[in-house]
Design brief:
The complex is a heterodimer of chains A (252) and B (247).
Chain A (H helix, E strand, L loop, with lengths): L6 H33 L13 H28 L2 H33 L7 H21 L4 H29 L20 H33 L4 H6 L13
Helix pairs in contact in A: 1-6, 2-3, 2-5, 2-6, 3-4, 3-5, 3-6, 4-5
Chain B lengths: L1 H20 L3 H18 L1 H22 L3 H25 L3 H5 L2 H7 L4 H30 L7 H27 L5 H27 L5 H30 L2
Helix pairs in contact in B: 2-3, 2-7, 3-4, 3-7, 4-7, 4-8, 4-9, 7-8, 7-10, 8-9, 8-10, 9-10
Classes of the chains: A mainly alpha (252), B mainly alpha (247).
Chain lengths: 252, 247
């Protein structure tokens, strides 16, 4: 574990693991989408329109999971000053923002025929929007620093402040206004969920696919982040087979 | 024997002297408060800028929405709340910036007093100098928008709880952004998610007062959040200042 924290070792490890993760993620996505879009029966109330949930719901889960993952990486970066954790936390933010945007966009596409409006100030929609702004704040703060390591630490602290804030936002907007349907997946007892099994399994496979895709993407992004952060170091020069140090040209 | 006694006596004297020189935490806070008030007084023209902003924006609403008193009375509470939040923003951005530039923050970090306590003192000074004037003119702005007299006390109470809370949250963000290239929009972007619950509960209390139902519950939530923030925000602000100062 300790050796994995060193940038050159992580670079090699991530490079070896990434293609496999991506492959399994793609396979799971194909299976999940086939199960969701073709095999699963239409909903008795919503017809075929509900099928957008096979994108919408895994993205919504991911938007929260990525935030938690980013906060944990940020905590490690702040407490132990691990360079790798800083890079990983900062590469999580754009991925999480993308999942949040997909959640908002697919939800709004589904909302137009079902609720008759693109957007409504419902509790879940609002907290998802707030989450999106939290991600944008982290990205913006990170890029506002000249020194990237200092920016990463500041943005990590913001991510931690945000994780204290998220439950407060969640409950306050719920108290304020609720229209969104409740959760139909009971995690403690999957058999008792109010969702049909033929719809549940593609959903879970899609959730697996998005998780794997996220990790594959983080590994790839972190490799690039490490290369540009460590440019000028010996191992990077060997890796890119470059010429001896050229301080200005070394930045990727 | 003498050679043994002599240095201990010296060391004792030295430690006594150090103890006399280093002021206690409360004395440091008082010194910081006095300094901040003095600085604010020397630039007292700037104290009126948020007030002017609030008055201008309040005056624009009747022009944009029409002078119908019933409409204005219905939206007055929420509008004033949002105006106060927006008027607080520009001052929040510069809460630590000048201290970072002239090296005062480095002295804060080196000081024997806890950094979190200094941050809390700065927030108190900031609130007293930039936000309190806004609250004082609130009745006047309320009159401009025809706010009813029995809602005004609730609005004031909600603002009295909400603005220190926002100042504490803003201090953390301002400390985070202090080391970054300056941009006010960034602070607004970071404050928005944190301000959402504050605005919801403050507006909830005002709306409840307007429709004549009990309004204590949202105010209690605001108070609870304020207590939580008084404890946690200075610690987070201190951590943020350490990141901002160290290279």
């Amino acid at each position: 574990m300790h050796r994995l924290g060193s940038p050159p070792t992580f670079y090699r490890f991530a490079g070896a693991l990434r293609p496999w993760l991506m492959l399994v993620a793609l396979a799971a996505a194909v299976v999940g989408l086939y199960g969701g879009l073709v095999l699963a029966p239409p909903d008795y109330q919503q017809g075929d329109a509900y099928r957008i949930m096979f994108i919408h719901v895994p993205s919504a889960w991911m938007s929260l999971f990525v935030y938690a993952f980013m906060a944990v990486a940020g905590l490690v970066a702040l407490v132990w000053r691990v360079k790798l954790a800083e890079v990983i936390a900062m590469e999580c933010a754009p991925a999480g923002a993308a999942f949040t945007l997909i959640t908002l966009a697919t939800g709004s596409l589904w909302g137009k025929p079902m609720w008759g409006t693109w957007w409504t100030w419902d509790a879940r929609l609002t907290s998802e929007l707030v989450l999106f702004f939290l991600y944008l704040g982290v990205i913006g703060l990170y890029h506002a620093f000249e020194d990237r390591r200092r920016g990463a630490r500041a943005a990590s602290l913001l991510a931690l402040v945000g994780i204290v804030n998220l439950p407060i936002v969640h409950y306050s907007v719920q108290w304020w206004n609720t229209l969104h349907q409740g959760s139909t997946v009971d995690w403690l007892n999957l058999g008792r969920s109010s969702i049909a099994p033929s719809m549940l399994w593609p959903l879970l496979v899609m959730a697996l696919a998005t998780h794997l895709y996220f990790f594959a993407s983080i590994l790839g992004r972190s490799r690039i982040g490490l290369l540009s952060l460590e440019s000028g170091k010996q191992w990077v020069r060997q890796r890119v087979g470059g010429q001896p140090a050229q301080p200005t040209g070394a930045r990727t | 024997m003498i050679t043994v006694v002599q240095p201990t006596g010296d060391a004792l004297g030295a430690s006594n002297r150090v103890r006399n020189v280093v002021p206690g935490a409360l004395a440091a806070c008082r010194a910081l408060l006095v300094r901040d008030f003095l600085l604010a007084w020397r630039r007292r023209g700037e104290l009126f800028l948020p007030l002017l902003y609030a008055v201008i924006v309040t005056a624009l609403f009747p022009f944009a929405l029409g002078p119908d008193p019933q409409l204005l009375r219905r939206i007055a509470g929420g509008v004033l709340l949002v105006i106060v939040v927006l008027a607080m923003l520009p001052a929040l951005e510069s809460m630590f910036r000048s201290d970072l530039e002239d090296g005062t923050l480095e002295q804060w970090l080196l000081a024997p007093q806890p950094l979190a306590l200094l941050v809390l003192t700065r927030v108190i000074a900031h609130w007293l100098t930039t936000v309190l004037p806004l609250l004082i003119v609130m009745p006047l702005l309320g009159a401009l928008l025809d706010l009813s007299a029995d809602v005004l006390p609730v609005l004031m109470l909600a603002l009295l709880l909400a603005t220190p809370l926002l100042a504490l949250l803003g201090a953390v963000l301002s400390a985070l952004a202090a080391g970054a290239r300056g941009s006010g929009i960034l602070l607004a972007l970071m404050l928005l998610p944190l301000a959402v619950p504050v605005v919801i509960f403050a507006a909830g209390a005002i709306a409840a007062a307007q429709s004549g139902i009990p309004y204590m519950a949202p105010l209690s939530w605001l108070g609870a959040a304020l207590v939580l923030a008084v404890v946690l925000a200075p610690l987070a602000g201190a951590a943020a200042l350490r990141i901002a100062v160290e290279a």
